[in-house]
Amino acid sequence: MVSYEYVLGGVLASLLASVFIMIINSARKVEGVEKSRNGFVRMPENGEEKGTDVVIVGAGVAGAALAYTLAKEGRRVHVIERDLSEPDRIVGELLQPGGYLKLIELGLEDCANESIDAQKVFGYALYKDGKDTKLSYPLEKYSSDIAGRSFHNGRFIQRMREKAATLSNVKLEQGTVTTLIEEKGTIKGVIYKNKSGEEFRTYAPLTIVCDGCFSNLRKNLSAPKVESPSCFVGLVLENCDLPHANHGHVILGDPSPVLFYPISSTEIRCLVDIPGTKVPSVANGEMAKYLKTVVAPQIPPQLYNSFIAAIDKGNIRSMQNKSMAANPLPTPGALLLGDSFNMRHPLTGGGMTVALSDIVLLRDLLRPLHDLNDASALSHYLESFYTLRKPVSSTINTLAGALYKVFCASPDPARQEMREACFGYLSLGGICSYGPVSLLSGLNPRPLHLFLHFFAVAIYGVGRLMLPFPSPQRTWLGIRLILRASGIIFPIIKGEGVRQMFFPTTVPAYYRAPPVH
To answer: Between β-strands 206-209 and 54-57, what pairing exists: parallel, antiparallel or unpaired?
Structure first.
């Protein structure tokens, strides 16, 4: 007969062995979810869910438009947005005509219409030293509905989110993405926390990061070099009329430009540019004093009283402007889009046009692919995206950076002459007016045309200096003007990539064909 001590000992030994095995397995699982140096999380190979084709991080302009677009193509989309309440921003409020055409291509034009009190924009009015010139978009060959659109950024985004959420294959969720999940160099999905703070993982063959200008994920997918050239101070003027209806107004002020444009039928947005990263304090009244004493005397008389009233109302907001050339690190399973990928100075209002153009291009590249699971082949194929996007993105990016530098006041006489030449050149009308405006509007995305017009402005400036007759001093100033112009545009072109910008067809990725399964 077996003693009960042996039976009890056997049971205890079995329990201890079971606990030991559980501890070993738990340790192995923890090893499998090891965080790597670059911020990714490494996951075990067999831990993948099915059911989602694309995870989109962020539901701003780029993320919401992309979610709707890919879902209409039949993709199952999971969108994770940090805050699904209506955004309240002072930029992203003016969509150029070229961007509106892309919105139509995506089937989202009803998100920027009367339902959000959007206003049509037909061009710009440029002011300098009491003189002004009107620059109209070249819209003659388009239907009457084609124009720029200006609106409250938050209303536009909410309308696109609502439209995306109506599709059964879109899951729109509020949550904060903390980490990209990596397995053997391939992004498999993301880790995020929902509204309640619970941590979840979601997996898909393709993760697209659209988490905006303050992206905390871009460093894993690109080599970003973010610059902060200036700050915008935003005001809203109420119940007043712009001197030129349905036009953006740009005042070439000192030290830098001031913008006015409608954002509803009763409101006008004013953006005051302040160079550098510091602005006067709103709390102690320094900002109000600066706006009243430095800026107010430079704005058109028709807007003066409303401008002062907006300052006195006290709803003064500021934000830092950022610029960042696209510098991707192609990574299987993931892609950057929108401001997390590429930014330019918002002076020209080109950011949304670039983002929407990128979405149209990405949709067309993905359209032939029924299966996104071959991450390596897909990444190789999508390298063409970075070259094919260049005509639009590099034109708008370069123009934004160059115009901002030309429009800012400077103690340098050569820069002063360049600024005067730019105003004079645009005031000539004809090709000198609609050529640059067609570039700014996104209707003519040709980098070579931009390059030619920029140096035509410089040559026009030199010509002004040579009349009525040249002198050694004026000739030297003309030479310096050309050198300053070169110093403005060539670094921007270098950042965009000379070959991709001007000779994209010489880049092998330009000809990438869809992977064959």
So the answer is: parallel
By the 10 Å C-beta count (0-12 exposed, 13-18 middle, 19+ buried), 278 is classed as: exposed
DSSP 112: G
Strand ranges (DSSP E) for 204-262? 206-209, 227-238, 248-251, 258-262
For 142-161, the pLDDT digits (tens) are 999 999 999 999 999 999 99
Residue pLDDT, tens place only, 259-275? 999 999 999 999 999 99
Amino acid sitting at position 303:
L
The whole-model pTM stands at: 0.90
325, 343 contact by CB (below 8 A): no
**Rounded distance between C-alpha atoms, residue 147 and residue 125, angstroms:** 15
- 177 is written with which tokens? 């993405």
Give the torsion sign (CA, 100, 69, 118, 395). Answer: negative
Q: How many CB atoms lie within 10 A of CB 288?
A: 17
Q: Which two tokens stand for residue 179?
A: 């980490």
Identify which of 20, 310, 355 has the alpha carbon closest to the alpha carbon of residue 160.
355
**Residues 462 and 417 sit within 8 Å (Cβ to Cβ):** no
263, 235 Cβ separation under 8 angstroms: no
pLDDT reported for residue 51:
85
Give me the long-range contacts of 422-425 (CB less than 8 A, separation at least 24).
422/457, 422/461, 423/126, 423/128, 423/131, 423/133, 423/252, 424/460, 424/461, 424/464, 425/456, 425/457, 425/460, 425/461
CA distance 127 to 253: 8
Pair 338, 212: CB distance under 8 Å: yes
3-state secondary structure of 15: helix
